[in-house]
Amino acid sequence: MNFITGINSKTIDMVWEDCVPFISKAEKFSQAEMKAEDVYGKIKDQDMQLWVVFNEETEILAVITTELVNYPRKKVCRIVTLGGDFMDDWVEYISVIEEWAIENNCEAMETFCRKGFKKKLETFGYDETYIVLGKELTTMH
Fold first, then answer.
1. Is a pLDDT exceeding 90 seen at residue 130?
2. Three-state DSSP class for residue 141
3. For the residues 118-134, what does the mean pLDDT come to?
4. Whose CB has fewer CB within 10 Å in the chain, the N or C terminal residue?
5. How many CA atoms lie within 13 A of 36 on its CB side?
6. Model confidence at 139, in pLDDT bands (50, 70, 90)?
7. Alpha-carbon span 136 to 32, nearest angstrom
8. Nearest residue to 67 (alpha-carbon basis) of 99, 10, 106
9. Torsions phi, psi of 45, nearest 5?
């Protein structure tokens, strides 16, 4: 039986090295806003949260990072990275994060994700609310 657990900022070093490949994998789908070491610092500073899905043998199946965002009119829990193989075996654990978000006074969940996750998350009630486009800028001299 698989299970998910939140990793406390004080005990992150016990699992961090095994989490890095999951978080680093997300980097190639981003605009290089953050690297794994940046995520580590934010988790240590309690600005982000680390969630790990383990199988029965306590091998890591997936790693999810979140952050709480205080918009002027609502507080949301943002899924920052979401990575692992065999997503169908663990994606249902997102409900644990949602319950935690409710306990932390969040009114909604959000994530900026690639298209592949859209179909998986729609089955859990996530809708496409907007899309994010990006472009790297170069200085013009």
1. no
2. coil
3. 81
4. C
5. 17
6. confident
7. 10
8. 106
9. -80, 0
CATH topology of domain 3-122: Aminopeptidase (3.40.630)
3-state SS, residue 2: coil
CB-CB contact of 99 with 84 (8 Å): no
Nearest in space to 84 (alpha carbons), one of 93, 75, 72: 93
Residue % of the chain over a pLDDT of 70: 94
Q: Encode pLDDT of 79-117 as tens digits.
A: 999 888 888 889 999 999 999 999 999 999 998 877 777
Query: Roughly what angle, to the nearest 10 degrees, separates helices 16-27 and 36-44?
Result: 130
Please write down the long-range contacts of 22-26, taking CB distance under 8 Å and 24 or more positions apart.
22/60, 22/62, 22/63, 22/81, 22/83, 22/84, 23/63, 23/65, 23/81, 23/83, 25/83, 26/81, 26/82, 26/83
Cα three-residue angle 14-18-22, rounded to 5 degrees: 135
